[in-house]
Amino acid sequence: MSAHEVRNIDLIVSDWGCDATPVYAYFMWHNGSRWDSTPTKRFDYSGCDTGDNTAYNDLFWNANADNIDYMMVVVCRDAFAGPCTGSFVSDRNPYAPF
Hints:
Largest sheet: 5 strands, antiparallel
Order of helices and strands: EEEEEEE
Structural class: mainly beta
Distance between the termini: 16 Å
Strand content: over 45%
Number of domains: 1
């Protein structure tokens, strides 16, 4: 990890609801003054199959000139179906300048 990028992210998305509505996840990061999000949504379409999931390995994000002070994972039901929930990472990126 550096001030501008994260590497080697392994993400597992699991949709165990029996509602025909896929679940997806994406990342948000804080650059010191605002939150922004990655453009890619990672879906799991398996639904109603407890124990099944979709794995995304070795993900990489580069925020270009922005620092990545904090990151979090956001998990949502399909865009028209329901709410999202986030998981804030409380440790500050040690590579980001203060």
